[in-house]
Amino acid sequence: MISVKQAFTLPVSEVSRKFRVENNNLDIADLIANSGLQAKKIKEFATAHRNERNRKETAKDSFRYIQISDIDVNLGRIKSYRTFQGDQAPNNARRIMSHGDILISTRRPTRGAIVAVPEDFDDHICTVFFTTLKVLNWEEVDPWYLALFLRTSLGRFQFQSFITETAYPVISDADVLDMTVLLPDIEQQRSIASAYAESVGSFFDSLNEAYRSISNARQEIENVVLRSEAEVLETPVFGLTAAIEEEEDIEGGEG
Q1: Residues 146, 117, 238, 82: what is their CA dihedral angle, to the nearest 10 degrees?
Q2: Predicted TM-score of the model (pTM)
């Protein structure tokens, strides 16, 4: 017997199949009431689309492909991608992304594999294992603010309350649309998103400056020891959205 809000009996043979884990007693009413912010369900200002490419028409087209593992869960940014010709792409490479779409991993959503699609990925392809949100009015909700909100602890707790157990935790498009978001005014949303983007950029600027210093120190040793025979060392450059050329499907069931 599995007891939930409404008791029912589940045969042992059915346990391995999909069932809802009743974590959804999450009560954020007091938090919402005391926040001083507008609270809205995602379904009030966004849709979850499933726009897919026509495989026949795109068979010879080349596109960038994003899967769950290409999202940096610490920074909330696309860290890598693969390029495929349509007829050589993995089976899951079907969902069409648009600039400003929010990609949310439906597999283990509490990890934070969530990103707002940057302009240079507009009209490219992502795995079908993302919920793909489209904000209807950017003057009401900033997509980059929404992506950040969904990576907060409040976002994580709501994901946890909706999780359905299969081989590993999953959620549905409908679950995401039923989540509650706290919204400051649009200018503050944009300010928060902009400040975060600047901090990510500063992180990589600082990282690259540090590596330049290290490379210069190594080059000095090389020059002193080997003089004219010294090797010229290359300084690594770090950033996001690096192309990965191996054309293989490594999704491992996680998209």
Answers
A1: 140
A2: 0.80
